[in-house]
């Protein structure tokens, strides 16, 4: 029997493993392990976090005995192993560090339980330990390569951001066999992660932001490593919306949550070494996301990152729009709505209700200002990119995704202001009543109105 014959659930970290060593004086020492990694059929990697006595013993005697437990059935296996090497950097170390940070962040122990190294052992023998075991549940579905290819092909065949998002989220849930998924978009300037689209939830959560505290989604973005939690029954939920430093009284947008979720996975969206966002999925099943599921999700993530980046590239269709009459001039009579802008984070409130912030907030204010100044209602991506007030980055501005986020937020809140897509690279700002712009700062926009 080799390491390759052991169930994958032995290496999920759901049930702690043990390592036993012997010191020069012949005294044994036993230590708990947060994680044992299966590297191949003959090697395993051990998480080295508090290996004081264990490390001393291995210097004198490289032999060790390991105990791993199947998280599905409770079956136990003893591994006779010999210490080979200690790794404190590289892809293997980085991936395990990200995973352990996610595991312990929920308890606030990610700093205390910091990974020091990955200790590599060669396994010379594997022996099952007799004892009672639970009946093995139905095996986890293995993602079908053909199904993954179909999802990637569907994403590659569409050019509109909304179509890309629909293909990604529906395809991810189908391939992974999970109940729900969210795609977060990253803002390099504010380091925020905002929900752009979701699938399988009662509420969409569009515009909800991941808090700054370490968590599964935030760690995936920071480390650019895929991370997963396969047994949430032993920990608190990792998700929760934490508002940014906005003015008092603003409303946080809650992140959607799958009731009774047991497993979660977060995959960074990387394109040309830039973070585009994070693909997040969750399931009601324990141990839902296998190593094969992680691989399938990464393939989808690479494809959607490329597709979103391509969709944000300026195209020939982005011709300058002709000035249009302001929709507000035809609005029904009544008191104007008040858009209040907070410059410290570019958050925008409509009649005191939070709408959005960051780039999306600046977009709304800049277009509203232009509507009041000149009566313009239509804008092209090209001219928006040229507006210095938007402070868009010179490279990878994600303008299309920001416009979609703003449009969905206005629609979801049923605001009297709406953003309509009227062509490739062209949007229209529509108002059903008058608009007044105000500033939470020194009155930069105060008193500007339309539709009265």
Automatic annotation (TrEMBL):
Domain (GAF): residue spans on this chain: 160-318
Pfam families: GAF_2, PNPOx_N
InterPro entries: GAF (IPR003018), GAF-like_dom_sf (IPR029016), Pyridox_Oxase_N (IPR011576), Split_barrel_FMN-bd (IPR012349)
Superkingdom of origin organism: Bacteria
Cited SMART domains: GAF
Transmembrane region(s): none
Official protein name in the record: Adenylate cyclase
Species assigned in the record: Gemmobacter aquatilis
Lineage summary: Bacteria, Pseudomonadati, Pseudomonadota, Alphaproteobacteria, Rhodobacterales
């Amino acid at each position: 029997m080799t390491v390759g014959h052991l169930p994958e659930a032995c290496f999920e970290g759901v049930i702690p493993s043990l390592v036993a060593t012997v010191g020069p004086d012949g005294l044994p020492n036993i230590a708990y392990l947060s994680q044992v990694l299966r590297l191949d059929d003959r090697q395993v990697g051990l998480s080295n976090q508090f290996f004081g006595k264990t490390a001393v013993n291995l210097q004198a005697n490289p032999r060790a005995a390991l105990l791993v437990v199947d998280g599905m059935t409770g079956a136990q296996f003893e591994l006779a192993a010999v210490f080979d090497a200690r790794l404190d950097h590289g892809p293997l170390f980085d991936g395990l560090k990200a995973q352990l940070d996610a595991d312990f962040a929920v308890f606030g122990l990610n700093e205390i339980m910091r990974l020091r190294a990955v200790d590599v052992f060669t396994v010379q023998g594997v022996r099952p330990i007799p004892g009672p075991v639970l009946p093995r549940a139905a095996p986890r579905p293995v993602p079908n390569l053909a199904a993954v290819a179909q999802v990637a092909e569907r994403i590659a065949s569409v050019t509109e951001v909304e179509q890309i998002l629909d293909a990604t989220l529906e395809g991810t849930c189908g391939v992974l066999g999970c109940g729900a998924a969210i795609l977060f978009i990253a803002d390099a300037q504010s380091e925020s992660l905002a929900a752009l689209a979701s699938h399988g939830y009662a509420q969409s959560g569009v515009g909800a932001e991941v808090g700054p505290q370490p968590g599964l989604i935030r760690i995936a973005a920071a480390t650019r490593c895929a991370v997963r939690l396969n047994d949430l029954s032993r920990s608190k939920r990792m998700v929760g919306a934490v508002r940014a430093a906005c003015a008092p009284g603003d409303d946080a947008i809650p992140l959607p949550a799958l009731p009774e979720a047991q497993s979660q996975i977060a995959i960074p969206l990387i394109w040309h070494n830039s973070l585009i966002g994070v693909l997040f999925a969750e399931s009601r099943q324990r141990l839902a996301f296998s190593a094969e599921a992680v691989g399938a999700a990464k393939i989808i993530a690479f494809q959607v990152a490329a597709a979103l980046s391509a969709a944000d590239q300026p195209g020939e269709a982005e011709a300058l729009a002709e000035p249009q009459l302001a929709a507000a001039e035809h609005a029904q009579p009544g008191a104007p709505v008040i858009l209040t802008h907070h410059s410290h984070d570019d958050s925008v409130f409509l009649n005191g209700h939070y709408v959005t912030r960051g780039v999306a907030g600046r977009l709304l204010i800049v277009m509203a200002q232009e509507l009041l100044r000149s009566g313009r209602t239509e804008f092209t991506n090209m001219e928006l990119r040229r507006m210095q007030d938007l402070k868009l980055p010179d490279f990878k501005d994600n303008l299309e995704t920001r416009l979609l986020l703003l449009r969905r937020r206005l629609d979801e809140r049923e605001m009297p202001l709406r953003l309509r897509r009227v062509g490739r690279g062209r949007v229209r700002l529509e108002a059903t009543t008058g608009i007044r712009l105000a500033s939470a700062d020194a009155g930069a926009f105060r008193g500007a109105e339309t539709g009265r």
